[in-house]
Amino acid sequence: MILAKVVGTVVASQKESSMDGLKFLTLQQVDLEGKATGGFVVAADAVGAGVGEMVLYASGSSARQTKATENRPCDAVVMAIVDNWETDGTLKYKKGRDD
After folding, report:
1. Tens digits of per-residue pLDDT, 3-47?
2. Which residues, 6 or more positions from 99, have their beta carbon under 8 angstroms from its beta carbon?
3. In the prediction, which pLDDT does 71 show?
4. I need a labelling partner for 69 at 20 to 30 A (CA). Which of 44, 63, 78, 83 fits?
5. Could you give the CA distance from residue 47 to residue 68 in angstroms, rounded to a whole number?
6. Rounded CA separation 57/80 (Å)
7. Domains by residue range for the chain, with CATH
8. Model-level pTM?
9. How far, in Å, CA of 32 to CA of 52, rounded?
């Protein structure tokens, strides 16, 4: 699982029919401080995440293990919306907190 921030959406009106009904999100990986790292990935959304939220995503064959993506040609899936995380006993992120 990888931490990421939802930074956008992708709309594809023409796609493989087995992908119909899936929402696609643009994600940017973040470090444990919540700062952007690495590149971007487009992931299918299995949990109803939205732009600005921190999420956990899986890639590779693990991306096809959710109910929403089972047997679909999917390489990345958002599988959790993060409420908070802490590192070494320090709260690093809390959903809805503006710091």
Report:
1. 999 999 999 988 889 888 899 999 999 999 999 998 899 999 999
2. none
3. 84
4. 83
5. 9
6. 7
7. 2-12+22-84 (2.40.50.220)
8. 0.89
9. 16
